[in-house]
UniProtKB/TrEMBL annotation:
It comes from Erythrobacter fulvus. Gene3D superfamilies: 2.60.40.1840, 3.30.2010.30, Neutral Protease Domain 2, Peptidase M1, alanyl aminopeptidase, C-terminal domain, tricorn interacting facor f3 domain. Residues 536-860 form the Peptidase M1 alanyl aminopeptidase C-terminal domain. This is Aminopeptidase N. It catalyses: Release of an N-terminal amino acid, Xaa-|-Yaa- from a peptide, amide or arylamide. Xaa is preferably Ala, but may be most amino acids including Pro (slow action). When a terminal hydrophobic residue is followed by a prolyl residue, the two may be released as an intact Xaa-Pro dipeptide. It comes from the Bacteria. Residues 20-182 form the Aminopeptidase N-like N-terminal domain. The keyword Protease applies.
Length: 861
């Protein structure tokens, strides 16, 4: 069945209080639930209550103590209710070890934990499992003390005790009313890294990071990140924490990154554990970002939650924006912004241009798990960022203050958020609301004309048709622009223009002759800018623009134009040579620019990804040719590597001399491996030696992984030796073994398909652990050379993974579908192979709702 946004109705009953009693066991857990229900005066009268279930059987159902006259409707339990208030008690029994979907209560490495968002609570007990039903939970847990010495739940522990039979119990109470998706429970043999945080009003909060004993030494970064997040949210958004306890638990089997359950976040170990020997600088950043994200949900998600799942971006888009702003403040604005835009383009733009395109507030779904997407999260964040850009930081803060104030304790909608920003920030967002309802990435074309001493800048927008949305209206697009002068080497002042019409001409002051427009500075709007700037203008912007984002953007534009031109065979030999020379020249300047720090230099040295180049190549009738894109990009890398061999060698040597804990160390490590990447493309033999040296000398995972990544793409003895050494050194560390799989699955090696097949047979590989599955197969699906191999073998392998994983873990299986779903934008021979695999999956029958929805949409759209 398809669920429609317009079908929302308030639930007939309120459930102000819930009491849960768990008798815990790894293979048998008894759950007794008591729900206090009251008629909802704001809903239509109902003489039954529907309690959602998923694979549950009720062992007993009573209403006010007497056996109830219940019936099942599919998976749901229907109980007749006559009066305005009742006490319903239901007992169920579940087997956490058999729960391979990892939704609801499940076993992971000998412990028990839960994941309830979006609809996992109904796999634990019968309940109105929807986010607009808010209850105060009191939970009693009981189990064998030797197996589960630690018993955790939301809120505060109010009582505990031991029994004579080797069992013990704890009772927890969460004073804040919450929807069932924020419920969590953890029972296991865990230890904590603890440090109190004192809030702005003086509340002392006990902060704990709970892990297995052997992981304790790698939890300081997570704990420090939590403290920094708490401090930042007080300072920047005026949000204070509201309990005396904040628990974070790391589990090794987890479908997503982490979960913001009230007072008891459950995390994938990947986003908790970090030390320099086992985690890269990027891993450290990811831990900090996800810890912050889940913490910020305490206000944007928990105190103000979502009315229904169509409103998911209300909490996710806003919280992603909040974590991005936090990381910008922690690590530097420009580099973080460049990274976030790279992610948006690699993950969200293709989604918006394909069969799975949906607005940030979708109109329909079959399985909500399929809508935890880059569109809802990352584009959702961009949409709110645009409001912030238009309002300015201070007025935006007035808007968010009003939002939190007005809706605290409520289940709100995206519309509520927009109205609060309108009222609080003083914006008119009437037309802006289209960003919530229209899918597709707008394209803005730019033309310019000098008129006296000003520039007439004409901007035109089109929003492409997407599945179910053939016609689009123009949306307000805020763009920061500046008009520079190349001839005068003068930089113009920046201003914000808002393009709200299909076409409009803006008059801007000139800063000198030969104007060069710098547009969408800081990436104020999630759009594609279409323009044909001269190579010289792009080179000028890449070297001189005062907005660092615009600098990197100019280099990207230069490279995209050149690579798409090369791949589609539209460049003359002269154009080809001139384009390559310009890019090499721009690289040479950024290598030599002493005013740049290495972190920014590392960004400027990054070529556009192949997926992004597919998008740029697939315009109008033209399709993307993965083989040609790959060849063009590798060719450019080799040209850069050989033209700049001396400079890159010198950079590698300079960066290698910077010590681990030097403040400049991070940037140095970034450019060090970048240098190897280009050198390897030009001179594999010599670079193999250099990479092996970097590997052997490394005192941190960033250098080690970087060197191994480069070696993985080369056919040399150093490759196999270092891969074996890496595995031997880290064989007991699951997260690092994941890296070992990923490096090989992502490699540029010509035999990558055969290597991935062999890795699937490795004793360390298992389909039961999502991190391991992703480490091999998500990585491979993101390896354009292997996945798009002209034989179609890469497509077949991923289709086989979907079929094998679907019965075990449908949520994770369905995440592999979008890579095959992009077939319409790919050249015909490969497109037919991709589509054939989707049809083969469809024909296999008996698919989960998750996979069925994604495959059928990919074939229809
Ligand atoms: N709310 C979590 C987060 O973004 C993600 C939960 C995803 N759950 C799911 N079933 N897809 O922080
Ligand atoms: Zn989130």
């Amino acid at each position: 069945p398809v669920i429609l946004r317009e079908d929302y109705r308030p639930f007939g009953w309120l459930v102000p209080e819930v009491r849960l009693d768990f008798d815990l066991g790894l293979t048998r857990t008894r759950v007794r639930a008591e729900l206090t229900v009251q008629r909802n005066a704001r809903a239509d009268h109902a003489d039954t209550i529907r309690l959602n279930g998923d694979g549950l059987k009720p062992l007993s159902v009573t209403v006010d103590g007497a056996a109830a006259d219940w019936r099942m409707d599919g998976d749901d339990l229907i109980v007749p209710l006559r009066e305005d208030a009742h006490l319903i008690a239901v007992e169920t029994e579940i087997d956490p070890t058999a729960n391979t979907q990892l939704m609801g209560l499940y076993a992971s490495g000998g412990m028990l934990c839960t994941q309830c968002e979006a609809e996992g609570f109904r796999r634990i007990t019968f309940f109105p499992d929807r986010p607009d039903v808010l209850s105060v939970y009191t939970v009693r847990m009981h189990g064998p003390k030797a197996v589960f010495p630690i018993l955790l739940c939301n809120g505060n522990r109010v009582a505990e005790g031991d029994n004579d039979d080797g069992t013990h119990w704890a009772e927890w109470n969460d004073p804040w009313p919450k929807p069932s998706y924020l419920f969590a429970l953890v029972a296991g043999d865990l230890v904590a890294n603890s440090k109190p945080f004192v809030t702005c009003s003086g509340r002392e909060v006990e902060c704990n990071i709970w892990v297995r004993k052997e992981d304790l030494a790698r939890t300081d970064h997570a704990l420090e990140s939590l403290h920094r997040s708490m401090q930042w949210d007080e300072e920047v958004f005026g949000r204070e924490y509201d309990l005396d306890l904040y628990n974070i638990v790391a589990v090794s089997d987890f479908n997503m990154g982490a979960m913001e359950n009230k007072g008891l976040n459950v995390f994938n170990t990947k986003y908790v554990l970090a030390d320099p020997d086992t985690a890269t600088d990027a891993d450290f950043d990811a831990v900090e970002g996800v810890i912050a994200h889940e913490y910020f949900h305490n206000w944007s998600g928990n105190r103000v939650t979502c009315r229904d799942w169509f409103q998911l971006s209300l909490k996710e888009g806003f919280t992603v924006l909040r974590d991005q702003l936090f990381s910008q403040d922690m690590r530097g604005e420009a580099v973080k912004r460049i990274e976030d835009v790279r992610i948006l383009r690699a993950a969200q733009f293709p989604e918006d241009a394909g069969p799975l395109a949906h607005p940030i507030r979708p109109d329909s779904y079959r399985e909500i798990s399929n809508f935890y997407t880059a569109t809802v999260y990352n584009k959702g964040a961009e949409v709110i960022r645009m409001m912030r850009s238009m309002a300015g930081v201070e007025r935006f803060r007035a808007g968010t203050d009003l939002y939190f104030d007005r809706h605290d304790g409520e289940a709100a909608t995206c519309e509520d958020f927009v109205r609060a920003i309108e009222d609080g920030a003083g914006l008119d967002l009437a037309q802006f609301r289209l960003w919530y309802s229209q899918a597709g990435t707008p394209r803005v074309s730019v033309s310019q004309k000098v008129e006296g001493d000003s520039l007439e800048l004409t901007l035109r927008q089109t929003v492409p048709a997407t599945p179910g949305q053939p016609d689009k209206q123009p949306m307000p697009i805020p763009l920061r622009v500046a008009v520079h002068s190349r001839a005068a080497a003068a930089l113009g002042a920046e201003q914000l223009v808002v393009l709200a019409e299909a076409e409009r001409t803006f008059t801007l002051p000139l800063s000198g002759p030969d104007p060069v427009v710098s547009i969408n500075r800081g990436f104020t709007a999630p759009v594609v800018i279409e323009r044909a700037l001269d190579r010289e203008d792009l080179v000028f912007l890449a070297a001189h623009d005062d907005d660092p984002f615009a600098r990197s953007e100019a280099l990207q534009e230069l490279a995209v134009g050149h690579l798409v031109g090369t791949a589609s065979g539209t460049l003359s030999a002269d154009q080809q040579a001139a384009g390559e020379a310009a890019i090499i020249g721009a690289f040479r300047s950024s290598l030599a620019d002493a005013a740049l720090d290495d972190a920014m230099r590392g960004e400027l040295m990054m070529l556009p990804s192949e997926t992004y180049l597919f998008e740029a190549m697939a315009t109008g009738e033209r399709k993307a040719d993965p083989g040609a894109i790959h060849a063009a990009r590798e060719g450019l890398k080799a040209a850069i590597g050989s033209a700049l061999a001396d400079e890159l060698g010198a950079l590698h040597a300079r960066a290698s001399a910077v010590p681990l804990d030097d403040p400049a160390g991070r940037g140095a490590r970034k450019v060090k491996t970048q240098a190897l990447v280009y050198l390897a493309a030009a001179d594999p033999g010599r670079t193999a030696k250099l990479a092996a040296q970097q590997y052997d000398a490394a005192d941190n995972m960033t250098d080690r992984q970087g060197a191994l990544m480069v070696l993985c793409g080369l056919d040399c003895p150093e490759r196999d030796e270092r891969l074996a050494a890496f595995h031997a050194r880290y064989k007991d560390n699951a997260l690092v073994v994941d890296k070992w799989f990923t490096l090989q699955a992502l490699s540029l090696h010509p035999d990558v398909i055969a290597q991935v097949r062999a890795l699937a047979e490795h004793p360390d590989f298992t389909m039961r652990n999502p991190n391991r599955v992703r480490s091999l197969y998500m990585a491979f699906a993101g390896n354009p050379q292997g996945f798009h191999d002209a034989s179609g073998e890469g497509y077949r392998m991923i289709a086989d993974v979907i079929l094998a994983l679907d019965p075990i873990n449908p949520q994770t299986a369905a995440r592999f579908v979008p890579s095959l779903g992009r077939w319409r934008r790919i050249e015909p021979a490969r497109a037919a192979l991709m589509k054939g695999e989707l049809e083969r999956i469809m024909a296999a029958g008996k698919l989960s709702r998750d996979t069925f929805e994604q495959v059928s949409r990919s074939l229809e759209g």
